Inverse folding.
């Protein structure tokens, strides 16, 4: 087997394959893969590989390599100067590279952001959860889970699909600095979440790409929405806040007033609204957006969107503009109906041309809705028709992801509705529910550091700064921060979703409503959060699965919820997979010092740790009986908390928090 050697890695070069890591969205593992899938696939075609063969993604170019045997390579993507031993050679075409010769990819210029290098036979790296794609934030996939470095050596495979060929001119995508993105409306648009004027502004505005953009998402600069709601209710004080649901890659996610186009390394779950979603065929453009570029959103009908399976002229990528006769005009709502018992509404929402988001009930926290979600997920998973890719549960919703080339949206909708109509009554639900006891370092120094970074680098005047725990106290009308601590340690948190902020990170709610401390999320979000920080956003608690951005208000830090040693064992983790928690687990906390937590984390990282897990079950009918018994006191406690939140809203209004411009 021949070998490729990295002479110069460029700013950020990783191994990727296409379509990436599918089937793990429900526990917070993103697909990764090439951010510009079209250029990546064309590079593979140029060398005669299968379209998805593992190759290189080079952000801003700069890669240089040698090989020890004669090899065919091809470079596609953003315009660059490509040379072999200093002599220019063409891009978008096969190039013969002899032993000892150096192929050098120049830096990208004013057009485009990423370049792709394919090697005939593909590069060979171990699969992780079924893919070679690198997820650098999770530190897995690709070459040791990291960006490439000078001196790295990678084996070259032997599997090929066809003879090498030049990519035709009309197959080459158009690069520009003024981008048009085809979008479908939904899942959360006007008039429920945005005003009609907001959506009109969205389509009329040329947004600017912010410098703080990466593979997780492309941040945009543009006008602040008017919003159709005054706040997010139980989900948070800001009108962008909703109960956590699954996202689609390519969704325009309003994190507060800041719009972010979610990329292939983005989060699977979150509590923010997304009014439009980039079509699958146009998502390649996200990988080429440079800081300072302009972006316009063009509404298209989902049925008229170009096929993501196409890579030639049918993809329409060689056109610098999006040709459209208008969008679907349905505000992203595909259908509405009632459950069989006629007690709960069901809303079927379009979430791109490759997802349907099924929502139960009103925008409130109701465990019966989560029970319906669970029942529907189990039913659909059992049937699993051709074209189904992922099922991702949120607090009151289930996102169904499908391959639009194998299972069209109308057929997917019919299938989901038929399955839903046959579900049993939710009140009958009893599910396994383990009690998982975890350590909590209260007000951990790492979370204080994250707040300090936020104050210095993002926003220094936020109401939740300089101390999140004091903000939680104020939001809920408690007498002291010790009351916040007491409630958190007394609560039993039911896990409603996984992957809220990547890698098995739970979104969990206290079973006793009196323990539901409601806060709002950071606006704008933090750019850094320590791994396994614990925070509260809306009525929900989350454990951050890894370092990264975030918006929950910190209360402390705990041990790992993802086994980074996988497939090697770690105490408490099941050997079949790297995530610790399951849906409907109940998390309880016990206090530890900062030093004790450091020791526990070191033990877990070394595979020596242990987790106290007790088997049990959760019965919806038993929970309802508990709520009925405690109803009067629950109303008393929650009413007092709501009064405090109204007072906080008043302080925000007086300070101009609701009218401040997006960062």
């Amino acid at each position: 087997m021949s070998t490729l050697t990295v002479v110069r890695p460029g700013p950020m070069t990783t191994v990727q394959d296409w379509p990436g890591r599918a089937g793990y969205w429900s526990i917070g593992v993103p697909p990764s893969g090439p951010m510009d899938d079209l250029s990546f696939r064309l590079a593979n075609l140029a060398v005669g590989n299968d379209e998805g063969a593992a190759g290189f993604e080079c952000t801003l170019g700069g890669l240089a390599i040698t090989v020890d045997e004669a090899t065919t390579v091809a470079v596609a993507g953003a315009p660059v100067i490509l040379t072999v031993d200093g002599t220019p050679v063409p891009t978008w075409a096969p190039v013969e590279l002899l032993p000892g010769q150096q192929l050098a990819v120049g830096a990208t210029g004013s057009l485009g952001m990423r370049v792709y290098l394919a090697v005939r036979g593909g590069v060979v790296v171990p699969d992780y959860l079924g893919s070679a794609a690198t997820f650098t934030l999770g530190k897995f996939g690709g070459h040791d889970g990291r960006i490439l470095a000078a001196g790295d050596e990678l084996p070259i495979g032997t599997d090929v699909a066809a003879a090498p060929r030049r990519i035709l001119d009309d197959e080459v995508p158009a690069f520009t600095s003024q981008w048009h993105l085809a979008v479908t409306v939904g899942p959360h648009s006007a008039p429920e979440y945005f005003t009609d004027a907001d959506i009109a502004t969205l389509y009329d505005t040329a947004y600017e790409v912010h410098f703080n953009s990466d593979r997780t998402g492309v941040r945009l600069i543009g006008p602040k929405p008017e919003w159709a709601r005054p706040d997010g209710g139980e989900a948070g004080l800001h009108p962008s806040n909703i109960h956590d649901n699954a996202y689609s890659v390519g969704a325009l996610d309003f994190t507060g007033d800041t719009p972010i186009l979610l990329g292939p390394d983005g989060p699977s779950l979150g509590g923010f609204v997304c009014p439009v979603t980039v079509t699958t065929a146009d998502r390649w453009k996200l990988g080429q957006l440079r800081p300072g570029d302009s972006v316009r959103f063009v509404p298209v009908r989902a049925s008229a969107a170009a096929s993501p399976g196409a890579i030639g002229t049918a993809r329409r990528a060689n056109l610098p503009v999006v040709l459209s006769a208008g969008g679907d005009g349905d505000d992203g709502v595909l259908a509405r109906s009632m459950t069989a018992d006629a007690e709960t509404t069901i809303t079927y929402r379009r979430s791109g041309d490759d997802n349907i988001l099924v929502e139960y009930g009103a925008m409130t926290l109701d465990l019966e809705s989560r029970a319906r979600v669970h029942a529907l997920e189990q039913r659909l998973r059992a049937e699993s028709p051709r074209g189904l890719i992922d099922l991702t549960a949120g607090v009151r919703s289930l996102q169904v992801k499908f391959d639009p080339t194998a299972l069209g949206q109308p057929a997917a909708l019919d299938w989901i509705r038929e399955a839903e109509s046959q579900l049993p009554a939710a009140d009958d639900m009893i599910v396994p529910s383990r009690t998982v006891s975890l350590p909590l370092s209260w007000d951990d120094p790492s979370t204080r550091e994250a707040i300090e970074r936020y104050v210095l680098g993002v926003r220094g005047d936020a109401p939740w700064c300089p101390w999140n725990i004091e903000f939680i106290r104020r939001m809920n009308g408690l007498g002291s921060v010790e009351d916040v601590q007491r409630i958190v340690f007394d609560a039993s948190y039911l896990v409603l979703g996984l992957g809220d902020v990547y890698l098995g990170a739970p979104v969990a709610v206290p079973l006793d409503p009196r323990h539901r401390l409601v806060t709002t999320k950071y606006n704008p979000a933090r750019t850094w959060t320590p791994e396994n920080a614990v925070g509260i956003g809306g009525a929900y608690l989350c454990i951050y699965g890894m370092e990264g951005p975030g918006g929950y208000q910190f209360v402390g830090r705990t041990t790992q919820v993802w086994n980074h040693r996988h497939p090697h064992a770690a105490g408490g983790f099941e050997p079949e997979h790297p995530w610790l928690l399951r849906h409907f687990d109940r998390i309880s906390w016990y206090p530890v010092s900062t030093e004790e937590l450091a020791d526990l984390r070191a033990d877990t990282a070394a595979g020596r740790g242990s987790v106290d897990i007790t088997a049990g079950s959760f019965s919806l009918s038993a929970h309802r009986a508990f709520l009925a018994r405690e109803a009067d006191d629950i109303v008393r406690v929650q009413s007092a908390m709501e009064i405090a939140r109204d007072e906080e809203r008043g302080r925000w209004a007086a300070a101009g928090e609701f009218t401040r411009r997006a960062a």
About this structure: Residues 441 and 592 are 5 Å apart (CA to CA). The chain has a mean pLDDT of 94. Residues 631-655 form the longest helix (25 residues).
